[in-house]
Amino acid sequence: MVGLQALKIMKNLPNGAKVITTPLTYIATSSSISWANLEPIYVDVDPQTFSITAENVKKHLKQAKNVKEYAVVLPVHLMGYAADIDAIVEVAKEYGLSVFEDSAQAHGTIYKGKKLGSWGDLADFSFYIAHNIQAGEMGALVSDNPEIARLAKKLKAQGRACDCVVCTRAQNKCPKIETYEGDDDFDPRFTHDLIGFNFKAMEFQAALGLTQLHKADWILAKRRENVKYLNSKLKKYTEVFKLPVFDEAVSYLAYPIVIKKPELISRKRLRKMLEDWGVETRPLFGSIPTQQPAYAFLKEEYQGKLPNADHIGLNGFYIGCHQYLSQEDLEYIVKTFDEVMREI
Ligand SMILES: Cc1ncc(COP(=O)(O)O)c(C=O)c1O
Question: What is the tally of structural domains in the chain?
Fold first, then answer.
Protein backbone atom coordinates (compact mmCIF):
# COMPACT_ATOMS: atom_id res chain seq x y z
CA MET A 1 0.00 0.00 0.00
CA VAL A 2 2.66 2.50 1.10
CA GLY A 3 5.03 1.23 -1.60
CA LEU A 4 2.49 1.61 -4.39
CA GLN A 5 1.56 5.08 -3.17
CA ALA A 6 5.27 6.05 -3.08
CA LEU A 7 5.71 4.74 -6.63
CA LYS A 8 2.59 6.59 -7.74
CA ILE A 9 3.86 9.90 -6.34
CA MET A 10 7.40 9.42 -7.66
CA LYS A 11 6.28 8.50 -11.18
CA ASN A 12 3.35 10.89 -11.16
CA LEU A 13 0.96 8.09 -12.13
CA PRO A 14 -2.66 9.02 -12.77
CA ASN A 15 -5.52 7.34 -10.92
CA GLY A 16 -6.49 4.20 -12.80
CA ALA A 17 -2.98 3.43 -14.11
CA LYS A 18 -2.80 -0.33 -14.71
CA VAL A 19 -0.90 -2.79 -12.57
CA ILE A 20 -0.38 -6.29 -13.99
CA THR A 21 -0.59 -8.71 -11.12
CA THR A 22 -1.49 -12.21 -10.03
CA PRO A 23 -5.00 -13.47 -9.44
CA LEU A 24 -3.84 -16.23 -7.06
CA THR A 25 -2.74 -14.69 -3.80
CA TYR A 26 -3.76 -13.32 -0.44
CA ILE A 27 -6.13 -10.43 -1.11
CA ALA A 28 -3.76 -7.80 0.39
CA THR A 29 -1.95 -7.48 -2.94
CA SER A 30 -5.07 -6.53 -4.88
CA SER A 31 -6.59 -4.41 -2.16
CA SER A 32 -3.37 -2.34 -1.98
CA ILE A 33 -3.62 -1.70 -5.72
CA SER A 34 -7.26 -0.70 -5.35
CA TRP A 35 -6.64 1.57 -2.35
CA ALA A 36 -3.86 3.32 -4.28
CA ASN A 37 -6.52 4.11 -6.93
CA LEU A 38 -4.70 1.98 -9.47
CA GLU A 39 -6.32 -0.76 -11.54
CA PRO A 40 -5.36 -4.42 -11.05
CA ILE A 41 -5.08 -6.38 -14.30
CA TYR A 42 -4.80 -10.14 -13.91
CA VAL A 43 -2.87 -12.63 -16.03
CA ASP A 44 -2.79 -16.37 -15.39
CA VAL A 45 -0.30 -18.20 -13.18
CA ASP A 46 2.13 -21.05 -13.76
CA PRO A 47 0.78 -24.26 -12.17
CA GLN A 48 4.20 -25.20 -10.67
CA THR A 49 5.19 -21.89 -9.08
CA PHE A 50 1.66 -20.43 -8.62
CA SER A 51 3.10 -17.12 -9.92
CA ILE A 52 2.46 -15.03 -13.01
CA THR A 53 4.97 -15.53 -15.83
CA ALA A 54 6.91 -13.15 -18.06
CA GLU A 55 5.33 -14.91 -21.04
CA ASN A 56 1.79 -14.16 -19.83
CA VAL A 57 2.70 -10.56 -18.98
CA LYS A 58 4.22 -10.04 -22.41
CA LYS A 59 1.30 -11.70 -24.19
CA HIS A 60 -1.08 -9.38 -22.35
CA LEU A 61 0.93 -6.23 -23.16
CA LYS A 62 1.27 -7.20 -26.82
CA GLN A 63 -2.48 -7.33 -27.26
CA ALA A 64 -3.27 -4.31 -25.04
CA LYS A 65 -5.21 -1.52 -26.77
CA ASN A 66 -3.09 1.18 -25.12
CA VAL A 67 0.16 0.10 -23.44
CA LYS A 68 0.66 3.63 -22.16
CA GLU A 69 -2.04 2.94 -19.56
CA TYR A 70 0.23 0.35 -17.87
CA ALA A 71 2.62 1.41 -15.11
CA VAL A 72 3.64 -1.52 -12.90
CA VAL A 73 4.12 -5.29 -12.90
CA LEU A 74 3.45 -6.74 -9.45
CA PRO A 75 4.22 -10.47 -9.24
CA VAL A 76 3.72 -12.37 -5.98
CA HIS A 77 6.25 -15.05 -5.04
CA LEU A 78 3.57 -17.29 -3.54
CA MET A 79 4.39 -19.93 -0.90
CA GLY A 80 8.09 -19.05 -1.31
CA TYR A 81 8.26 -20.02 -5.00
CA ALA A 82 9.93 -17.52 -7.32
CA ALA A 83 8.15 -16.04 -10.31
CA ASP A 84 10.51 -15.89 -13.35
CA ILE A 85 11.43 -12.47 -12.07
CA ASP A 86 14.53 -11.97 -14.27
CA ALA A 87 12.37 -12.34 -17.40
CA ILE A 88 9.57 -10.23 -15.86
CA VAL A 89 12.09 -7.42 -15.20
CA GLU A 90 13.19 -7.65 -18.86
CA VAL A 91 9.61 -7.38 -20.17
CA ALA A 92 8.94 -4.48 -17.78
CA LYS A 93 12.05 -2.67 -19.05
CA GLU A 94 10.93 -3.13 -22.62
CA TYR A 95 7.59 -1.44 -21.84
CA GLY A 96 8.93 1.14 -19.33
CA LEU A 97 7.09 -0.37 -16.34
CA SER A 98 8.18 -0.51 -12.70
CA VAL A 99 8.46 -3.88 -10.97
CA PHE A 100 7.13 -4.37 -7.45
CA GLU A 101 7.88 -7.83 -6.03
CA ASP A 102 5.41 -9.02 -3.44
CA SER A 103 7.85 -11.16 -1.45
CA ALA A 104 5.58 -11.33 1.58
CA GLN A 105 5.71 -15.14 1.50
CA ALA A 106 9.25 -15.61 0.24
CA HIS A 107 11.86 -14.40 2.71
CA GLY A 108 15.16 -15.99 1.82
CA THR A 109 14.30 -17.72 -1.46
CA ILE A 110 17.22 -17.48 -3.87
CA TYR A 111 16.46 -17.25 -7.57
CA LYS A 112 19.33 -17.49 -10.05
CA GLY A 113 21.83 -16.60 -7.31
CA LYS A 114 19.95 -13.54 -6.01
CA LYS A 115 17.44 -13.18 -3.16
CA LEU A 116 13.81 -12.50 -4.03
CA GLY A 117 12.89 -8.94 -3.19
CA SER A 118 16.11 -7.60 -4.73
CA TRP A 119 15.15 -7.92 -8.40
CA GLY A 120 12.53 -5.20 -8.85
CA ASP A 121 12.31 -1.49 -8.06
CA LEU A 122 10.80 -2.31 -4.68
CA ALA A 123 9.51 -5.27 -2.70
CA ASP A 124 7.51 -6.04 0.40
CA PHE A 125 7.93 -8.68 3.08
CA SER A 126 5.32 -9.68 5.64
CA PHE A 127 6.07 -10.71 9.21
CA TYR A 128 2.59 -12.01 9.89
CA ILE A 129 2.60 -14.85 12.39
CA ALA A 130 2.27 -17.62 9.75
CA HIS A 131 5.21 -16.37 7.70
CA ASN A 132 8.82 -17.56 7.73
CA ILE A 133 10.03 -14.62 9.80
CA GLN A 134 7.39 -13.58 12.26
CA ALA A 135 6.62 -10.55 14.38
CA GLY A 136 2.90 -11.14 14.93
CA GLU A 137 1.86 -8.61 12.30
CA MET A 138 3.94 -5.94 10.53
CA GLY A 139 5.85 -5.90 7.26
CA ALA A 140 8.79 -4.24 5.53
CA LEU A 141 9.27 -2.42 2.30
CA VAL A 142 12.68 -2.54 0.58
CA SER A 143 14.00 -0.54 -2.33
CA ASP A 144 17.39 0.52 -3.66
CA ASN A 145 15.76 3.68 -4.95
CA PRO A 146 16.36 6.43 -2.34
CA GLU A 147 13.34 8.44 -3.48
CA ILE A 148 10.97 5.50 -3.00
CA ALA A 149 12.49 4.88 0.43
CA ARG A 150 12.15 8.56 1.37
CA LEU A 151 8.53 8.79 0.26
CA ALA A 152 7.60 5.48 1.91
CA LYS A 153 9.09 6.61 5.19
CA LYS A 154 6.96 9.76 5.12
CA LEU A 155 3.78 8.05 3.90
CA LYS A 156 3.78 5.40 6.62
CA ALA A 157 3.86 8.21 9.20
CA GLN A 158 0.92 10.32 7.98
CA GLY A 159 3.02 12.13 5.34
CA ARG A 160 4.95 14.12 7.90
CA ALA A 161 7.74 16.42 6.81
CA CYS A 162 10.45 14.35 8.54
CA ASP A 163 12.52 12.25 6.18
CA CYS A 164 15.93 12.05 7.86
CA VAL A 165 17.40 8.58 8.29
CA VAL A 166 18.30 9.39 11.91
CA CYS A 167 16.54 12.19 13.80
CA THR A 168 18.89 14.88 15.13
CA ARG A 169 16.27 17.12 16.77
CA ALA A 170 17.52 16.15 20.22
CA GLN A 171 20.85 17.80 19.34
CA ASN A 172 19.00 20.91 18.18
CA LYS A 173 20.11 20.18 14.63
CA CYS A 174 16.97 19.62 12.61
CA PRO A 175 17.92 20.17 8.94
CA LYS A 176 14.25 20.55 8.07
CA ILE A 177 14.06 23.87 9.92
CA GLU A 178 16.21 25.40 7.19
CA THR A 179 13.81 24.23 4.52
CA TYR A 180 10.95 26.08 6.22
CA GLU A 181 12.67 29.45 6.21
CA GLY A 182 11.02 32.15 8.22
CA ASP A 183 9.16 29.70 10.42
CA ASP A 184 11.57 28.50 13.07
CA ASP A 185 8.67 27.49 15.26
CA PHE A 186 7.58 24.68 12.99
CA ASP A 187 7.85 21.06 14.09
CA PRO A 188 8.48 18.65 11.18
CA ARG A 189 6.89 15.77 13.09
CA PHE A 190 3.55 17.59 13.00
CA THR A 191 3.85 19.32 9.64
CA HIS A 192 2.58 17.17 6.81
CA ASP A 193 3.39 17.65 3.14
CA LEU A 194 1.72 14.43 1.92
CA ILE A 195 -1.54 12.68 2.73
CA GLY A 196 -0.36 9.42 4.23
CA PHE A 197 -1.31 6.55 6.52
CA ASN A 198 -0.41 5.31 9.97
CA PHE A 199 1.63 2.17 9.22
CA LYS A 200 4.32 2.82 11.81
CA ALA A 201 5.72 -0.35 13.37
CA MET A 202 6.16 -0.62 17.11
CA GLU A 203 9.54 -1.21 18.72
CA PHE A 204 8.05 -4.23 20.43
CA GLN A 205 7.28 -5.83 17.05
CA ALA A 206 10.70 -4.86 15.73
CA ALA A 207 12.30 -6.58 18.73
CA LEU A 208 10.41 -9.78 17.93
CA GLY A 209 11.43 -9.51 14.28
CA LEU A 210 15.09 -8.97 15.17
CA THR A 211 15.12 -12.07 17.36
CA GLN A 212 13.72 -14.04 14.44
CA LEU A 213 16.37 -12.66 12.10
CA HIS A 214 19.09 -14.21 14.26
CA LYS A 215 17.37 -17.57 13.78
CA ALA A 216 16.36 -17.06 10.14
CA ASP A 217 18.81 -19.52 8.56
CA TRP A 218 17.72 -22.25 10.96
CA ILE A 219 14.01 -21.50 10.45
CA LEU A 220 14.25 -21.56 6.67
CA ALA A 221 16.34 -24.76 6.66
CA LYS A 222 13.98 -26.52 9.08
CA ARG A 223 10.89 -25.63 7.04
CA ARG A 224 12.65 -26.87 3.90
CA GLU A 225 13.56 -30.14 5.63
CA ASN A 226 9.94 -30.60 6.70
CA VAL A 227 8.71 -30.12 3.13
CA LYS A 228 11.30 -32.66 1.93
CA TYR A 229 10.21 -35.18 4.57
CA LEU A 230 6.49 -34.81 3.80
CA ASN A 231 7.20 -35.15 0.06
CA SER A 232 9.16 -38.34 0.66
CA LYS A 233 6.30 -39.88 2.64
CA LEU A 234 3.35 -38.60 0.59
CA LYS A 235 4.76 -39.23 -2.88
CA LYS A 236 2.79 -42.50 -3.01
CA TYR A 237 -0.32 -40.32 -3.42
CA THR A 238 0.84 -38.24 -6.37
CA GLU A 239 -1.85 -39.73 -8.62
CA VAL A 240 -4.39 -37.87 -6.51
CA PHE A 241 -2.38 -34.89 -5.23
CA LYS A 242 0.11 -32.53 -6.79
CA LEU A 243 2.69 -32.10 -4.04
CA PRO A 244 4.94 -29.04 -3.76
CA VAL A 245 7.97 -29.13 -6.04
CA PHE A 246 11.04 -29.40 -3.84
CA ASP A 247 13.93 -27.02 -4.42
CA GLU A 248 16.84 -26.31 -2.05
CA ALA A 249 16.72 -22.62 -3.06
CA VAL A 250 13.09 -22.13 -1.97
CA SER A 251 12.07 -20.88 1.49
CA TYR A 252 8.74 -22.58 2.09
CA LEU A 253 5.90 -20.63 3.67
CA ALA A 254 3.82 -23.80 3.95
CA TYR A 255 3.13 -27.14 2.28
CA PRO A 256 0.78 -26.50 -0.68
CA ILE A 257 -1.17 -29.38 -2.22
CA VAL A 258 -3.40 -29.27 -5.31
CA ILE A 259 -6.01 -32.01 -5.70
CA LYS A 260 -5.55 -33.54 -9.14
CA LYS A 261 -8.67 -35.67 -8.99
CA PRO A 262 -11.40 -33.59 -7.37
CA GLU A 263 -13.91 -36.14 -8.65
CA LEU A 264 -12.29 -38.64 -6.25
CA ILE A 265 -12.18 -36.28 -3.30
CA SER A 266 -13.29 -32.67 -3.12
CA ARG A 267 -11.22 -30.08 -1.31
CA LYS A 268 -14.08 -29.48 1.08
CA ARG A 269 -14.25 -33.15 2.09
CA LEU A 270 -10.48 -33.60 2.31
CA ARG A 271 -10.01 -30.48 4.43
CA LYS A 272 -12.80 -31.57 6.74
CA MET A 273 -11.24 -35.03 7.15
CA LEU A 274 -7.77 -33.62 7.81
CA GLU A 275 -9.12 -31.09 10.29
CA ASP A 276 -11.14 -33.76 12.08
CA TRP A 277 -7.79 -35.47 12.70
CA GLY A 278 -6.35 -32.17 13.95
CA VAL A 279 -4.28 -31.26 10.88
CA GLU A 280 -5.08 -27.64 10.16
CA THR A 281 -5.52 -26.58 6.54
CA ARG A 282 -6.10 -23.35 4.60
CA PRO A 283 -7.38 -22.81 1.05
CA LEU A 284 -4.84 -21.57 -1.47
CA PHE A 285 -6.49 -18.14 -1.42
CA GLY A 286 -8.75 -18.39 -4.50
CA SER A 287 -8.54 -16.53 -7.78
CA ILE A 288 -9.27 -12.93 -6.86
CA PRO A 289 -11.37 -11.68 -9.80
CA THR A 290 -13.35 -14.91 -10.20
CA GLN A 291 -13.57 -16.37 -6.70
CA GLN A 292 -13.26 -13.57 -4.15
CA PRO A 293 -16.56 -11.85 -3.29
CA ALA A 294 -14.84 -8.50 -2.74
CA TYR A 295 -13.91 -8.47 -6.44
CA ALA A 296 -17.21 -9.91 -7.74
CA PHE A 297 -17.53 -6.87 -10.01
CA LEU A 298 -14.70 -8.39 -12.13
CA LYS A 299 -16.11 -11.91 -12.29
CA GLU A 300 -17.77 -11.66 -15.68
CA GLU A 301 -14.77 -9.96 -17.29
CA TYR A 302 -12.34 -12.68 -16.17
CA GLN A 303 -14.60 -15.74 -16.47
CA GLY A 304 -12.69 -18.51 -18.28
CA LYS A 305 -9.58 -16.37 -18.79
CA LEU A 306 -7.52 -17.63 -15.83
CA PRO A 307 -7.79 -21.43 -16.02
CA ASN A 308 -4.74 -22.24 -13.85
CA ALA A 309 -5.63 -19.75 -11.13
CA ASP A 310 -9.26 -20.89 -11.17
CA HIS A 311 -8.24 -24.56 -10.87
CA ILE A 312 -5.75 -23.98 -8.06
CA GLY A 313 -8.10 -21.56 -6.34
CA LEU A 314 -10.76 -24.28 -6.23
CA ASN A 315 -8.59 -27.33 -5.58
CA GLY A 316 -5.50 -26.05 -3.81
CA PHE A 317 -4.92 -25.88 -0.07
CA TYR A 318 -2.00 -25.91 2.30
CA ILE A 319 -0.90 -27.42 5.57
CA GLY A 320 1.94 -26.21 7.76
CA CYS A 321 5.66 -26.91 7.51
CA HIS A 322 6.49 -24.88 10.63
CA GLN A 323 9.96 -25.04 12.13
CA TYR A 324 8.61 -26.24 15.45
CA LEU A 325 6.84 -29.31 14.01
CA SER A 326 8.51 -32.25 15.73
CA GLN A 327 9.32 -35.58 14.08
CA GLU A 328 6.30 -36.94 15.94
CA ASP A 329 4.09 -34.19 14.45
CA LEU A 330 5.35 -34.92 10.95
CA GLU A 331 4.70 -38.64 11.38
CA TYR A 332 1.21 -37.82 12.65
CA ILE A 333 0.51 -35.78 9.50
CA VAL A 334 1.64 -38.69 7.30
CA LYS A 335 -0.46 -41.12 9.34
CA THR A 336 -3.47 -38.83 8.93
CA PHE A 337 -3.07 -38.81 5.16
CA ASP A 338 -2.80 -42.62 5.21
CA GLU A 339 -6.06 -42.84 7.17
CA VAL A 340 -7.82 -40.37 4.89
CA MET A 341 -6.65 -42.15 1.75
CA ARG A 342 -7.82 -45.49 3.14
CA GLU A 343 -11.28 -44.01 3.60
CA ILE A 344 -11.80 -42.50 0.15
C1 LIG B 1 1.12 -12.33 -0.67
C2 LIG B 1 0.94 -11.34 0.45
N3 LIG B 1 1.06 -10.03 0.18
C4 LIG B 1 0.95 -9.09 1.15
C5 LIG B 1 0.71 -9.47 2.46
C6 LIG B 1 0.59 -8.38 3.50
O7 LIG B 1 -0.67 -8.34 4.01
P8 LIG B 1 -1.06 -7.23 5.13
O9 LIG B 1 -0.92 -5.92 4.44
O10 LIG B 1 -2.46 -7.60 5.47
O11 LIG B 1 -0.10 -7.41 6.23
C12 LIG B 1 0.59 -10.81 2.80
C13 LIG B 1 0.34 -11.22 4.18
O14 LIG B 1 0.06 -12.33 4.52
C15 LIG B 1 0.69 -11.79 1.77
O16 LIG B 1 0.59 -13.10 2.01
Answer: 2
